[in-house]
Write a structure and sequence with these properties.
Aminopeptidase, 3-stranded antiparallel β-sheet, 23% helix, globular, AstE_AspA_cat
C-alpha cells in the first residue's frame, strides 16, 4: 500500500498560554512581552493570541490559588454551574473554555501552546497527548530538527489512567512546552531563549504548512509515560528517602533494574525494581511533591507520521 497524503485544514487561530502555573516565569515573562510587542509571533494569515491563563496565581507567584488549573479541563468541571463557591481555577477554566473553545468543538482554537517550566533537568521538552496525530508529529519533528544540535525531547502522556485534562486540551492541536531546569519564581536567560526558539520554530512550521509546503513522512523518538513513582514514606505518610545522587538531574537517561533510585538518611540505597530499562522524567520536580510523584517512568518508542499538506493546496 502506498503512503497517502494527510490533508488538514489550514491553521487560522493560535493561542500562546503563559502562567497556567503562576510561578513558572518564562511563559509569564514571554507572554507579557508579546502582549506589549507581538511582532515576533505574528505570521501572515494567522491570528496568534498571547494570553495569561491564571492571572491571580501569577500576581502571587504561586502555582495556583485553589487547585491546579492544568488538571481541571474535563467535562465535569467545565460543565459545572458557574458560582462563587467553585474553586477559582474551575471558574477560570470555564472562562478559558469560553474564550478559546469550546473543547471538542469545531469552533475551538486550532493550536494552543502552553508554556511551562520544570525544576527538573529536562531541557527542551514537547508534550504530546495523541500518538496518532500526524500534524503534531510533523510539527514536533520540525521543531526538533530546527533546534539541533540542542536536544529536544518528546514526552507522550497518552495513558488510560495517568493522562489528565490539560489547559491546552481545548484546542484541536494541544502542545505542551516544558523547559528546565529553572527554580520556581526565577527567570534564567538560557531557559527563556530556548522556549522562545521553540515557539518561533513552531510558528514557522504552521506558516509553511499554511502556504502549501508538503511535509514528507517522518519519524520521531518519544518517551511514553508508564508509571508515576512516589517517594518511600513512613507510617505517617512522610517522605522517608530522597532522590539518590546518581539519579538526580538524569532525566531521559536509561535507568536499569538495580540502579540506585532513593537514599535514606541512614545511608540505605533503594534500587530500581522491575526487569526492564526505563527512562525517568520530572526527576525530583518541586511541584510534584504534593502530587506524591518523585519521578515518572517512561519507555522509549518511535512514532511515524504520513506526509501532510494543507487542504487548500
Amino acid at each position: 500500500m502506498t503512503s497517502c497524503h494527510v490533508t488538514e485544514d489550514p491553521i487560522k487561530k493560535v493561542a500562546i498560554f503563559g502562567g497556567t502555573h503562576g510561578n513558572e516565569l518564562t511563559g509569564v515573562f514571554l507572554v507579557k512581552h508579546w502582549l506589549e510587542n507581538g511582532a515576533e509571533i505574528q505570521r501572515t494569515g494567522l491570528e496568534v493570541k498571547p494570553f495569561i491563563t491564571n492571572p491571580r496565581a501569577v500576581k502571587k507567584c504561586t502555582r495556583y490559588i485553589d487547585c491546579d488549573l492544568n488538571r481541571v479541563f474535563d467535562s465535569e468541571n467545565l460543565g459545572k454551574t458557574m458560582s462563587k463557591d467553585l474553586p477559582y481555577e474551575v471558574r477560570r477554566a470555564q472562562e478559558i473554555n469560553h474564550l478559546f473553545g469550546p473543547k471538542d468543538n469545531e469552533d475551538s482554537y486550532d493550536v494552543i501552546f502552553d508554556l511551562h517550566n520544570t525544576t527538573s533537568n529536562m531541557g527542551c521538552t514537547l508534550i504530546l497527548e495523541d500518538s496518532r496525530n500526524d500534524f503534531l508529529i510533523q510539527m514536533f519533528h520540525y521543531i526538533k530538527t530546527s533546534l539541533a544540535p540542542l536536544p529536544c525531547y518528546v514526552y507522550l502522556i497518552e495513558h488510560p489512567s495517568l493522562k489528565y485534562a490539560t489547559t491546552r486540551s481545548i484546542a484541536k492541536y494541544p502542545v505542551g512546552i516544558e523547559v528546565g531546569p529553572q527554580p520556581q519564581g526565577v527567570l534564567r536567560a538560557d531557559i527563556l531563549d530556548q522556549m522562545r526558539k521553540m515557539i518561533k520554530h513552531a510558528l514557522d512550521f504552521i506558516q509553511n504548512f499554511n502556504e502549501g509546503k508538503e511535509f514528507p513522512p517522518c519519524a520521531i523518538e518519544v518517551y511514553k509515560i508508564m508509571e508515576k513513582v512516589d517517594y518511600p514514606r513512613n507510617e505517617n505518610g512522610d517522605i522517608a528517602a530522597i532522590i539518590h545522587p546518581n539519579l538526580q538531574d538524569q532525566d531521559w537517561k536509561p535507568l536499569h533494574p538495580g540502579d540506585p533510585v532513593f537514599l535514606t538518611l541512614d545511608g540505605q540505597i533503594i534500587p530500581l525494581g522491575g526487569d526492564g530499562t526505563v527512562y525517568p522524567v520530572f526527576v525530583n520536580e518541586a511541584a510534584y511533591y504534593e502530587k506524591r510523584e518523585a519521578f515518572a517512568k517512561t519507555t522509549k518508542l518511535t512514532l511515524n507520521a504520513e506526509s501532510i499538506r494543507s487542504s487548500l493546496h
